[in-house]
Design goal:
Two copies of one chain form a homodimer.
Chain A lengths: L9 H17 L6 H8 L13 H24 L5 H18 L1 H7 L9 H18 L9 H20 L12 H13 L2
The structure holds a DNA duplex.
DNA sequence: ACCTGAACACCGTTCAAGT
DNA sequence: ACCTGAACACCGTTCAAGT
């Protein structure tokens, strides 16, 4: 409410937060840069001091998503020493992230691909865990760790995307994220 | 070019075709109903005789996508009697469909979920093939066919979505669709 | 340096009016 | 029955002007 009293880029974060609010409330199709400005109490031209365009603001939202996801996966990987359990928890964390932060998740995989390396960091957490699982002979060692990690990522990503859409109760997609991931990983990998 | 000479719903299909053109050329974010009308040579109000809204037109595009996908999968499933080969071809066909018709694929999984039962039909083709593969002891019989088909669908869908985004060369996602699907299915299922 | 006010071209949608 | 013309509120973006 403190109109026009932003300082040191506080408006920048306020715009990102407002964008996330609107995305969570109404989704991407109803998202409007003008409304973000209105909600922050500034003119419709003000955001252009901090972002080049609407897409640029959305890219900043996506970047926060990549950072949050990486944090979550990092903590999850450290939460257990059991190799099998770690893989299952990583899968659950990925699908849960999508369900808990659909505004971030959808934004990350919608607009222009992020040049930020943090998506790669997240992949590497999975990659290490896959490597360990192969070393422990829990999963097939015939495909390279990279191919195996890529395949598991695809399965988790597809699961997240599909289960986020409403009426897939027909396919039993209404389970909790952790169960979805666990069932899928054990079906595909025999875990 | 035959301005205002549409008859028996020919405009309806012309609008759908125009929408697909624009979606393929410029993507969803640049898509405009007014431009669809302009391209068809009618006023901006004309589409409202055939569709309730912009979203309704996009839903019609999605429906054509579900129909085309189902056709493709149906033919693919009939193209071989080898159970293993059929599963691999179905996977390849799914990812190839996404790459050949990104306008349709993205539209199908974007707007409001389609109430059309043809997505279920496509799933059932996969389900039958999974059932056969389990009966032939090619893949694990421990998970139910439904759960196994759901998991494979998730993997293929994730693969399609992720490989459609540009700069994932880092993860080796620049292979042809058939190879992507085959590598993933054999990594996950040991096929 | 950061924001406002006003403007531009464009959008989705509505509705009276034309044939 | 199907389309036009004109209008409405809204959008993304630009830019001169204010402090």
């Amino acid at each position: 409410m403190s109109r026009a009293t932003y300082h040191h880029g506080a408006l920048r974060q306020a715009l990102i937060d407002g964008a996330r609010e609107i995305l969570a409330e109404r989704g991407h199709d109803q998202f409007s840069l003008n409304e973000v400005a209105r909600r922050a109490g500034v003119s419709t031209a003000a955001p252009y001091r901090h972002f080049e365009s609407k897409d640029d603001l959305l890219a900043a939202v996506a970047d926060q998503g990549y950072a949050t996801l990486h944090q979550t996966l990092d903590r999850t990987a450290a939460s257990t020493d059991d190799v099998r359990e770690r893989l299952l928890r990583l899968g659950g964390a990925y699908v849960r992230f999508a369900h808990d932060h659909p505004d971030l998740f959808v934004t990350m995989f919608r607009g222009r691909p992020s040049p930020s390396p943090v998506g790669v960091d997240s992949f590497n957490i999975l990659l290490r865990s896959v490597f360990d699982a192969q070393a422990a002979d829990l999963i097939s060692t015939h495909p390279s760790p990279e191919l195996m990690a890529r395949s598991i990522w695809a399965a988790l990503h597809g699961l997240a995307v599909l289960s986020l859409r409403q009426p897939h109760q027909r396919f039993g997609m209404d389970e909790p994220p952790e169960d979805l991931a666990a069932h899928t990983l054990s079906a595909l990998l025999g875990l």
